[in-house]
Every structure is written in structure tokens, then in C-alpha cells.
Amino acid sequence: MTDTATDAYSSFTVNDLESTRTFYQDVLGLRIEDRDGMLFIHLPGGAYTVAYAHPKHQPARFTILNIVVPDLPIAVADLTRRGVEFEHYEGTSIKIDSDGIYRAKGPWFAWFYDPSGNVLAVCERDVRPSGTA
């Protein structure tokens, strides 16, 4: 089956298309295309994902989208200026610094929520030693 596939994409539900469009376009800077009552969110690298409103939407409690950036501290600072609040996972074993960055050995991550409560992350692809700047 996959040897004849021509495309693939993921999709997720949201509460409201307008607030979703505003967030993904104006805050995250992604290109949005309205099509058939859904939002096609064009991602860096050429792929896309689809957001659609559902009356019984339940926020995804796992990460539905990782956006890879070359320098996570700079991206987090920029998104913070745009009003994004990063998750700190208080009371868990996940050690996140005051900027909202998980700086353990491996790729660094910073998690946040879209307006419908779905979990997103910005991250670096490259592995950094634990705690380095």
C-alpha cells in the first residue's frame, strides 16, 4: 500500500477554527489555507496538517506537532514575546528551566498549548549535552 501512496498528513480537532487560524498564522507564522471547512496548516519542510472543528473536541494531552527550529532559546524568547506561555510540568520528574525549556541530554524541547488545549512543541533536532547553552 505505501509503495503507491502519493501523500500523507495528520489531522486534529479544535474548538474553534477562527482562533485556531489566528494562532497558527499570526503567532506561529505558519501559512493557513481554508478548504472545505477545515484549516490546512502548511508546515516547514513542505508537509501540512489539517485542523477541523468538532463539537465534542477533547484536547490532545500528548504532543501533536513538533516544530523544529535551529536555536530553541531564541525561538522560545520570540514566542514568549508573542504571548505564548510555556508548560513547566510542575510536580513531575521533567526538569524544565525558567524559560520553559527542557534542556536534558538530547534534543531540547519547549511545550505549549494551542487555543483548543492541544499540546505543541518547539524543539531542536540536534542533540546537545545536558544543560549547555
Feature tags:
133 residues, alpha/beta, three-stranded mixed sheet, 28% strand, globular
Quick summary of this structure?
The model has no long low-confidence stretch (mean pLDDT 92). The chain is built from 2 helices and 7 strands, in the order βαββββαββ. With 133 residues, it is of the alpha/beta class.
Structure description:
The longest helix has 11 residues, at 17-27. The model has no long low-confidence stretch (mean pLDDT 92). The protein has 133 residues and is an alpha/beta fold. The chain is built from 2 helices and 7 strands. It has helices at residues 17-27, 72-81, and strands spanning 10-14, 31-35, 38-42, 48-53, 63-68, 109-113, 119-123. Helix content is 16%, strand content 28%.
Can you lay out the helices and strands and say which pair or pack?
Elements: E1 10-14, H1 17-27, E2 31-35, E3 38-42, E4 48-53, E5 63-68, H2 72-81, E6 109-113, E7 119-123
Parallel strand pairs: 1-4, 5-7
Antiparallel strand pairs: 2-3, 3-4, 6-7
Distance between the termini: 44 Å
Helical amount among residues, as a percent range?
10-25%
Number of strands: 7
Mean pLDDT: 92
Order of strands across the main sheet: 1-4-3-2
Category from helices, strands and their pairing: alpha/beta
The shape, in one word, is: globular
Q: Biggest sheet, open or closed, and with what strands and sense?
A: 4 strands, mixed
Q: Low-confidence parts, pLDDT < 50 over ≥5 residues?
A: none
C-alpha Rg (nearest Å): 16 Å
Strand content is 25-35%
SSE pattern, N- to C-terminal:
EHEEEEHEE
Total of DSSP H or I helical runs spanning 4+ residues: 2
